[in-house]
């Protein structure tokens, strides 16, 4: 499948079928923590990168194959809202199924009325906000020229006023960057203004393009939860894991996921083992096959081995 991947399971969205609408990597930001690597060339112009009917057809096929899904999630190799026509896709998916639709976005285009409008039918929208000051925002997300912090905030506030669904803001907590009391208090002030339904605290557990990206200490995570909880509900999600049990072609399914983000070796081992209960050799066999294709490699991050695609 070209656009649909997973299901991937996570505490936030349970069993979620992913839909990627973008050519890699198309983004308005160049975050220090991006698991897709550096943004080589910014994309800020919204386009229908691939024919919407083709994407819908894949979703239809995937819905027939995968049962027990909790969410259909639009998330991509970059900024999801760069896809012009996502509103049409959300509306069409809603005609096919009752499974709720989530959109993961950096939120940088929410200042545009047409973008906010396209999101109104989604059941949950998960935009990013990592800082409460312009300087820190720019240091972390390194936006394309013309995209300002003020605009980002105004977009989030305007969207909150117009949107009836669940607004879950994703905060990436970076050790030594935005985990000080001062940074967290600034963030709490703007979160209060936005008034999201919830904040999902996420951690840089995957390989990042910049050396300065580190996991925060447990003490800082607890502090972040304490400070942000003063203004909204904060969820510290457990890491997601993969479910390959319904994949018709295991290597293809693994490729679809690893090409979108690095996958921890432990997570992949567990996902493969779940497909072959009692067959202990199977995990090593599949990983050997992966290496034999020449398309994957293992890298280390924070002392943990991860699978990534060969560049
Ligand atoms: S917004 Fe997302 S895809 Fe874009 S650079 Fe940041 S982490 Fe990467």
Automatic annotation (TrEMBL):
Start and end of every Radical SAM core domain? 11-245
Give the protein's cofactors. Answer: [4Fe-4S] cluster
SUPFAM superfamilies from the entry?
Answer: Radical SAM enzymes (SSF102114)
- Write the record's keywords in alphabetical order, separated by commas: 4Fe-4S, Iron, Iron-sulfur, Metal-binding, S-adenosyl-L-methionine
GO MF terms here are: 4 iron, 4 sulfur cluster binding; catalytic activity; metal ion binding
Instruction: State the signal peptide span.
Output: none
Q: Which PANTHER family does the UniProt entry name for this protein?
A: FEMO COFACTOR BIOSYNTHESIS PROTEIN NIFB-RELATED (PTHR43787), UPF0026 PROTEIN SLR1464 (PTHR43787:SF11)
What's the name of the protein? Radical SAM domain protein
Q: Which organism is it from?
A: Pelodictyon phaeoclathratiforme (strain DSM 5477 / BU-1)
Upper lineage is: Bacteria, Pseudomonadati, Chlorobiota, Chlorobiia, Chlorobiales
């Amino acid at each position: 499948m070209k656009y649909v991947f997973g299901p991937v399971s996570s505490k936030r969205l349970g069993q979620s079928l992913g839909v990627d609408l973008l050519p890699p990597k198309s983004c308005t930001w160049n975050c220090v923590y991006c698991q897709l690597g550096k943004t080589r060339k910014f994309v800020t112009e919204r386009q229908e990168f691939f024919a919407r009917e083709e994407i819908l057809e894949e979703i239809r096929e995937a819905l027939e194959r995968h049962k027990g899904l909790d969410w259909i999630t639009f998330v991509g190799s970059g900024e999801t809202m760069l896809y012009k026509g996502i509103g049409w896709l959300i509306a069409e998916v809603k005609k096919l199924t009752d499974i709720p639709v989530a959109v993961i976005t950096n939120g940088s285009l929410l200042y545009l009325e047409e973008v906010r409008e396209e999101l109104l039918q989604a059941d949950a929208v998960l935009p990013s906000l990592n800082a409460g000051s312009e300087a820190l925002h720019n240091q972390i997300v390194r936006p394309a020229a013309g995209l300002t912090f003020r605009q980002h905030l105004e977009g989030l506030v305007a969207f909150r006023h117009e949107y009836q669904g669940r607004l879950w803001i994703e905060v990436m907590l970076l050790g030594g960057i935005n985990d000080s009391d001062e940074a967290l208090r600034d963030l709490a002030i703007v979160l209060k203004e936005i008034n999201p339904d919830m904040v999902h605290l996420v951690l840089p557990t995957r390989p990042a393009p910049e050396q300065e990206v580190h996991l925060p200490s447990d003490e800082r995570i607890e502090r972040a939860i304490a400070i942000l909880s003063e203004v909204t509900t904060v969820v510290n999600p457990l890491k997601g894991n993969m479910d390959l049990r319904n994949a018709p072609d295991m290597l293809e399914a693994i490729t679809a996921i690893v090409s979108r983000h690095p996958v921890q070796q432990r997570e992949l081992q567990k996902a493969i083992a779940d497909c072959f209960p009692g067959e202990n050799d199977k995990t090593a066999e599949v990983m050997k096959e992966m290496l034999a294709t020449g398309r994957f490699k293992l890298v280390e991050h924070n002392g943990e081995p991860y699978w990534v695609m060969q560049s």
